[in-house]
Please model this.
Amino acid sequence: MLKVFSHYFPLHTLQQALFDAALLFALVVGTIWSHSQPEAGFWAAIMPSASAFAVAMVGLNSAMGLYRPVRRRSNRQAIVSVALSVVVSVPVAYLAFGVLPWGGQTNEATQWLVVLGLGLILLGRGVVNQRQAAVLFAPRVLIIGTGHDALAVYRDLTQPLQRSVDVIGFYPSDRDEEIQIEARDILPAGNLVQLVRKHRVNEIVVAVRERRGGALPLRELLDCKLAGVRVLDLSSFFERVQGQVRVDSLRASWLIYGDGFRQGWARTVVKRCFDLGAAVLLLTVALPVMLLTALFILIEDGAPVFYRQERVGRGGRVFKVIKFRSMRRDAEKDGKPRWATSNDDRVTRVGRIIRKLRIDELPQLFNVIAGEMSLVGPRPERPYFVDQLAREVPFYAVRHCVKPGVTGWAQVRYQYGSSVDDAVQKLQYDLYYVKNHTLVLDVLVLFETVRVVLTGEGAH
Model:
């Protein structure tokens, strides 16, 4: 994993992106070389622009999720994902020829060859991503522990579509731990430093919660770290690999003394300017869709078109969120709040469509302009459920230290949720966002939201 702008990117994903960028760069240079007669000084102009073109195309498809490692992806989702990348990238690439230095000096056939080559690269990447990924210079990882947590770490590190490390084995932490690992994978207990040197270990994951009573060789772990070996606890591991802060392995001291959770004025100003500009632009583009949605709601179920409901925002302050009404007018006629479910019988026919396409969320752009919400952040919850979840879920209130969002990291990483258990899973992604949020992560979430809507992966 490589940390860029406070966000973790898998090593093999970066290698794939760099390989495709180099391939696309070579395609551009080779095609122009063989199909045109460049003037003097032409190559001095083409090299940087061809590099920028290749990086921009790969960056666009990275944002669309082409390189994102996934745990489970059906053939349909894989096909839709690749098709989406091709449909978006090919027109953008063709239009890019008009603004690049070599666009005016190449003929139509050359341009189409480059665009066709880009499409073939994307199709090839889609096929390769369905197979087990190989990674150059894969780090060698030692897992300390032999219990449930150690097994969970091993499964995360060795998933078929995102394997990017070489797990050399498990180091037993103590005799009382319930063993979940096969005996052949457990290394003999002994001097940890010598074991690390023998197996050329680059990274150690401490998959043990109990740290009292000599369960861990702390002195030897320190020696390993001083020797250049990375040492991770469970919280840091799950943050890096799963993009979430696990509540079951979280301690208040980690939140207090660890990195992240910065809320400086500069970050607030940048985020607010981005929210305002993007919200105004999105409202302008989406206005025709919003007018049609309002008309269809009126035809099917009458007024009101909008639905206003109290939600908890930053600092625990209550505000009224605005959405297109997607449920019947008597959805809560008994006055008792209920979790919305994926197949809720209270949803109208128009409501089912606009919820699937996220059109019902568009009026929240007015909440963004008003400063009550942000484009990206934890989804705001109703006060009734906030009170319930705050009592049952540790650290739930941490998500309220930033503005709630129209979309969020949890929404593009986790499917529709309608229970306390689902709320815990989403909270773990929300905590990751609160800890690491930057403008780069916001842009990534917006692109992923488009991908989720268009590919129908089921996140909400």
Summary: The radius of gyration is 25 Å.
